[in-house]
Design brief:
Largest sheet: none
Low-confidence stretches: 203-208
Order of helices and strands: HHHHH
Distance between the termini: 57 Å
Mean pLDDT: 78
Structural class: mainly alpha
Number of domains: 2
Strand content: under 5%
Shape: rod-shaped
């Protein structure tokens, strides 16, 4: 499916901010060029030793440069501004989709993929984000599978609470194996120190005998 964007100002704050920076750089360049071209002529024109004819020649040079340089710089400025918006559009578009994807992940949705247009920037970043989502999706798929196994074993234990000791031990052993696999998969994720404390406290609440270990 070919992605199209009708709006060129997707992220106004970002794109207009970049435009302002580019305009400032452009004005600095124009100022340097202007000083280099006009300042020597202005200094020459202010020389009191020049007669009227010589002053006229210098003044004609200034007017000629002004008449030629002004319109040309205006055209360059307009082209520069349009080009800046078009280039920033290739950055703002992918960033907009990245933010949407991050929001979906925050809401627990890992089913979507990031689609950006051909010719957009940040393709390497898109590939890395897709790699991250794929890794999370694979790990969560295993976690969900193990949780389904645990649910079946627990249901079996509830239904067969009066079963013989041997059957009960086999069910508990199956539950312990599934828990071990689930724990191994969850070790893939790293948490903050506060989250680790919360997890440990939750384990202590379920296992009072572990308190103080």
């Amino acid at each position: 499916m070919k992605l199209r964007r009708k709006r060129y100002l997707i992220d106004k704050k970002l794109q207009l901010g970049l435009l302002v920076y580019n305009v400032v750089y452009f004005l600095i360049i124009v100022s340097v060029i202007g000083v280099g071209l006009f300042l020597p002529l202005v200094i020459e024109l202010s020389d009191g030793n020049l007669d009227i004819m010589q002053q006229g020649v210098v003044a004609d040079k200034i007017l000629y440069l002004h008449s030629r340089l002004g319109p040309g710089l205006l055209v360059i400025f307009l082209v520069f501004a349009v080009h800046s918006v078009l280039v920033s559009h290739k950055i703002a578009g992918p960033l907009y989709r990245f933010r949407a994807t991050f929001q979906q992940i925050a809401e627990g949705d890992l089913s979507k993929v990031i689609g950006i247009r051909k010719g957009d920037f940040l393709l390497n970043e898109q590939a890395k984000i897709e790699e991250m989502i794929s890794a999370l999706r694979a790990k969560l798929s295993i976690v969900k599978s193990e949780q389904a196994v645990i649910e079946r074993v627990v249901n079996q234990l509830v239904q067969d609470s009066a079963q013989s000791g041997g059957d009960l031990k086999r069910s508990i052993a199956a539950l312990e194996e599934c828990n071990s696999r689930l724990k191994k998969e969850l070790e893939y994720f790293r948490l903050t120190d506060m989250d680790v404390v919360n997890v440990r406290d939750a384990g202590i609440m379920l296992n009072p005998d572990d308190k103080g270990k």
